[in-house]
Input
Amino acid sequence: MKRLTVLALMLTVVPALTGASWLNDPSNNHEFRAGIEAGFVGVLEHTIQFGRNGTQFDYVNEGRQNILFPFRRLSAELHLKPRHTITFLIQPLDIRTEAVLQNDLVLDTDTFPTGTPMNLRYGFDFYRLSWQYDFLTAPDRELAVGLSLQLRDASISFASQNGDMLRVYQDVGPVPIIKVRGRFPVGGRSWVGAEVDGFYAQGSVVTGSTNVESSFRGAILDASVRYGMTLNDWLDGFVNARYVGGGASGGQEDPENPRSDGYTDNWLGAFSVSLGFYLK
Output
């Protein structure tokens, strides 16, 4: 969070000292934009299961994901005037909790007995590259549709606090996504915006993996609404409410984790509220 604060100060203070021309020249046919958000995220529902005979573990009720966690998001955009935009997004998500197991927890071939004090980590960072086409050419309006390719970087661990037992699941893989984004003025310097990235698929390849059974299914929904204000020619501020959800269910044809049958059932639904700035 300290690094994020420093970056936010740089985004707001440096342009004020040097002027906006260091970032964009109005005569160019392209424009660079940068966004930063910080706030909190709360988990609405989250269950996970490893192994067809494994436990369906409720992270909220049993894993203590019933509090708020820090949230941040960084993005960089290249706008090719007047209609095309390429965006790169960095979205960390690292939720760590401590809990005492209320029931036996079976993860593939390992069993953590009832009453075990646990350190739990659900890490699901992702990186997203997007392209979108804007049907409106007015600089203060946007109605765009496009495609995204998301790279998930998952690291999920269950560890007994005495150090006797540890189970770790890690995975990196691509996810295809459809994107829709809009922004419209509402009077004066104020504006409202919305953004949706989502996808649902079943089977091999189309879900981003070739090592899965035909019944494997996956989904993602990243949807937000925001209210913003143009502070000056180079900076917007906004408040954003977001829903982030999705997951996957099914088995791998060739299990990657040792002592595993390759079956996973993992579904998450969360919301975030954040304050952001948009440098243009």
